[in-house]
């Protein structure tokens, strides 16, 4: 079985790549940081990586071509790459808005258009979109996260929409609570999360491999608190 994971150079994605390789899956990982990708490849020969910027058309096309050259079917896709900006709404530049929406919404959307034929070809498939509690309707919202949380809200709704449009592909989204990663440290310096990246990855691995048997088109909160 094989899996494509975006955002594997650090944080949750880095841990996911290692854990799926440990379980014997062929792991295809994408990020921009070539040095970190080379380091990750050394962990296991099951891990293959490609340096690509998912906010560019050429980057997403390169990922699509890379996978199609190597595989005729794809079992799992985790849209994990994410971008955040934590700033008062009026101070957010257009460039920052576009960066967050491009990484969190447009990249998974365009990548999915490319990968759907391979996912449909696999008798066992599951697309897991990594979202956030902030994108869940009625959850506590934090000042400064307008672009980030609204982009994750869009990813949640995209998950529900695609689930009804493609009956032969399993889609779910995980709305994560806080995990101690570089992203969290950069956006909220000093904040102490209840889980680290590895612990969060443990849950995501189990969910990806099993949950499609029980859930379809669902947004699942993954949080130790009830915000
Ligand atoms: N940590 C949390 O508390 C938390 C909470 C809720 C949801 N989440 C979500 O969980 C996911 C993983 O978060 P994390 O905390 O592990 O984040 P992270 O440490 O910042 O890692 C993000 C990954 O995304 C990749 N990435 C960013 N922009 C990219 C681009 N343009 N093209 C290709 N790859 C790109 C980064 O690699 P390069 O920089 O090398 O490209 C990196 O590997 C994200 O979707 C995030 O929104 C996290």
Q: How many β-strands, per DSSP?
A: 9
Q: Give the domain tally.
A: 1
Q: Ions, cofactors, ligands: which are bound?
A: NADP nicotinamide-adenine-dinucleotide phosphate
What is the topology, as strand order, of the major beta sheet? 3-2-1-4-5-6-9
Distance between the termini: 36 Å
Multimeric state: single chain
Structural class: alpha/beta
Describe the protein's architecture and organization.
- With 227 residues, the chain is an alpha/beta fold.
- The chain has a single domain (2-222), classed as 3-Layer(aba) Sandwich (Rossmann fold), CATH 3.40.50.720.
- 45% of the residues lie in helices and 19% in strands.
- It has seven helices and nine strands, in the order βαβαβαβαβαββαβαβ.
- It has helices at residues 11-22, 34-41, 57-70, 94-121, 146-165, 182-187, 197-210, and strands at 2-6, 26-31, 47-51, 76-79, 126-132, 171-176, 179-180, 195-196, 218-222.
- The strands form two sheets. A seven-stranded parallel beta sheet has the order 3-2-1-4-5-6-9, sandwiched between helices. A two-stranded parallel ribbon has the order 7-8.
- β7 (179-180), α6 and β8 form a beta-alpha-beta unit.
- The protein is globular.
- Bound molecules: NADP nicotinamide-adenine-dinucleotide phosphate.
- NADP nicotinamide-adenine-dinucleotide phosphate binds next to α1, β2, β5 and α6.
- NADP nicotinamide-adenine-dinucleotide phosphate is lined by residues 6-13, 30-33, 53-55, 80-83, 103, 130, 132, 176, 178-179, 181-184, 193, 197.
């Amino acid at each position: 079985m094989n899996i494509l994971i975006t955002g594997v150079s650090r944080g949750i994605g880095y841990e996911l790549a290692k854990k799926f390789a440990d379980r014997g899956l062929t792991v295809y990982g994408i990020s921009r940081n070539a040095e970190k990708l080379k380091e990750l490849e050394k962990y296991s020969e099951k891990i293959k990586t490609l340096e690509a910027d998912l906010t560019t058309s050429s980057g997403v096309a390169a990922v699509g071509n890379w996978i199609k050259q190597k595989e005729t079917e794809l079992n799992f896709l985790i849209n994990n790459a994410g971008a955040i900006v934590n700033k008062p709404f009026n101070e957010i530049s257009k460039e920052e808005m576009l960066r967050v929406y491009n990484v969190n919404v447009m990249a998974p959307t365009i990548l999915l258009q490319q990968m759907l034929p391979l996912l449909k070809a696999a008798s066992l498939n599951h697309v897991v979109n990594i979202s956030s509690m902030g994108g869940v309707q009625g959850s506590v919202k934090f000042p400064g996260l307008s672009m980030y949380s609204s982009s994750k809200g869009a990813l949640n709704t995209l998950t529900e929409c695609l689930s009804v449009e493609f009956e032969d592909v399993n889609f779910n989204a995980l709305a994560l609570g806080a995990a101690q990663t570089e992203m969290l440290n950069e956006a909220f310096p000093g904040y102490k999360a209840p889980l680290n990246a590895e612990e969060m990855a443990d849950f995501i691995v189990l969910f990806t491999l099993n949950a499609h048997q029980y859930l379809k088109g669902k947004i699942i909160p993954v949080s130790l608190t009830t915000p």
